[in-house]
Design a protein that fits this description.
single chain; 505 residues; alpha/beta; TIM Barrel; eight-stranded mixed sheet; 34% helix; 22% strand
Length: 505
């Protein structure tokens, strides 16, 4: 029996749509999108049956009616950057806890980084993890493979066996490849395979220098009993703060200045190497003005090149000779080089220059308000393609000892809806583009749109519901969130993956 679902009484939102209507799902795919407000169950059912009859499957198809109750129906979110700590660090996260958390956050697909124990450096290992994840029947997982074998920084031989169908992204996330020649070699291999290189842009030598300052700050934080994830304590309200607090401030500022320069320098380097290698490069967790400007310029150069050479799409191969507007003859050809980038919810929402967020340890560090608004401007003008969480769960003990990063998948939609949509910086459609359509395009997935023939990965959200973050209710094992106790607007209510309801709240 073929299974179908009609989601009706909905507000339909994707990158090009914001309207009332209904969605018919048949055998895991979107079959039809009805635009119009249908309150009658009978009317909705009749419309769906008309489509099924036209397809000749009415008699062999079961129809489930799903009343969205005026909530927002939008493509399931796609996270291009998560850390699930599997294998080897399951005290921080495992496949089950991580994918349950992702589903609770409305994510139908996530891309997991390879900085595990051992490092994921083989296709076989990556595919085994994907197989184990698929068996859970939750969010789909793509496992990245490291750029260099075991993060050693020299051997790229394992990249010869890549298959973008199973591994669309490779990354050295958690660090960067120090050697430019090795990075170029890895990028060339990625280009040959059509695989995206996701770059953690951070000069490793400046990072080492920054760690010494961070350790000074961490010592002072620990001495006065503060946390390192940006939530308030009694100390924050004290009138007589000890000198350690000043040391903390100064040391953190020095560390963050070095880390900002580390990001700027390696962003420029990786963009130049990607151009040389003719590969698709994705710049992860962009946080600085310098990095944004470098990416903006790279994208502008690509657009100018494409216009000059009459390239409709970088994915199209041209072998014929054509004439340009001036009548000059030239050969059109395939060009793989492309630049995309992501920002995180915490970098667009939090001011890292003021307590308590100045001690919320994360790489790259939180920035000041001016930089936050530069990131938002980059979202608005299209420089930023994707919002990814950089979901980084740690035990509370590891976090107290300075481990950088926050859990992010369960708060991502609410943070973005609160700080971007409700603050009127962008529309709901733009948010859908950033969290669904664009990552799907980058990964080459048939997802991210409410459109006939697309995978029926759909999330239902209440864009107006307010809720208070309580990490004790997280599915993730990571509880050190800077949004603890914050009231956010926007709640995930249901998640459908391949036409199957996997989450209902």
């Amino acid at each position: 029996m073929i299974k179908s679902i009609l989601i009706y009484n909905a507000r339909l939102v994707d990158e090009s749509m914001d309207t009332a209507g209904a969605v018919l799902i048949v055998d895991g795919k979107i079959r039809f999108v009805f635009q119009g407000y249908f309150t009658s169950v009978k009317t909705a059912e009749e419309m769906a049956k008309t489509i099924l009859k036209e397809d000749g499957i009415e008699e062999s198809c079961s129809l489930e009616l799903f009343n969205a109750n005026n909530l927002t129906v939008t493509p399931a979110f796609i996270d291009m950057h998560v850390h699930l700590r599997y294998p080897g660090q399951i005290q921080k996260e495992d496949l089950s806890s991580g994918l349950k958390a992702a589903a609770a956050g409305g994510f139908g697909t996530v891309v997991a980084m390879p900085n595990t124990n051992p490092v994921v450096s083989s296709v076989e290992m990556a595919m085994q993890i994907e197989k184990e994840a698929a068996a859970l029947g939750l969010t789909q997982l793509f496992q990245t493979v490291s750029l260099t074998k075991d993060f050693a920084g020299s051997d790229t031989s394992h990249l010869d066996f890549l298959d973008k169908k199973y591994i669309p992204v490779i990354s050295e996330d958690g660090r960067d490849v120090a050697s430019s020649s090795v990075m170029l070699e890895a990028m060339k291999k990625a280009s040959e395979k059509g695989v995206v290189v996701s770059c953690h842009c951070e000069d490793p030598f400046l990072t080492v220098d920054a760690k010494s300052y961070r350790q000074v700050a961490l010592n002072s934080i620990q001495k006065v009993g503060l946390n390192t994830w940006g939530t308030l304590s009694e100390f924050d309200f004290a009138d007589d703060r000890p000198e350690d607090y000043d040391i903390n401030d100064e040391a953190l500022c020095q560390a963050e200045l070095l880390l900002e320069k580390a990001e700027d320098l390696m962003t420029i380097r990786n963009l130049e190497l990607a151009k040389m290698a003719d590969c698709k490069v994705h710049i992860a967790h962009v946080s600085s003005k310098g990095a944004i400007e470098a990416i903006r310029k790279a994208k502008s150069d690509i657009n100018k090149f494409n216009e000059a050479h009459d390239l409709v799409s970088s994915k199209t191969t041209y072998m014929d000779f054509v004439e340009n507007k001036e009548g000059e003859s030239f050969e059109r050809f395939e060009r793989n080089y492309d630049v995309t980038c992501e920002v995180t919810p915490h970098h667009i929402a939090l001011n890292g220059m003021e307590p308590p967020f100045n001690r919320a340890l994360v790489n790259p560090p939180l920035k000041d308000s001016d930089t936050r608004f530069e990131l938002i401007k980059a979202i608005q003008d299209g420089t930023v393609d994707v919002i990814s969480t950089d979901h980084a769960p740690h035990t509370l003990e590891d976090k107290k000892n300075g481990a950088p990063g926050f859990p992010g998948v369960e708060t991502a939609y609410a943070v973005c809806n609160s700080f971007l949509v409700k603050s009127k910086h962008i529309s709901s459609s733009k948010l859908s583009q950033l969290m669904s359509a664009n990552p799907a395009k980058i990964l080459g997935l048939n997802k991210g749109l409410l459109k006939n023939g697309y995978d029926a990965d759909i999330v239902i959200v209440d864009s107006d519901e307010q809720w208070t973050v309580d990490a004790q209710n997280f599915y993730s094992k990571g509880r050190a969130t800077p949004f603890q106790g914050k009231t956010l607007t926007g709640a995930v209510k249901s998640l459908i993956i391949n036409g199957k309801v996997v989450l209902e709240k």
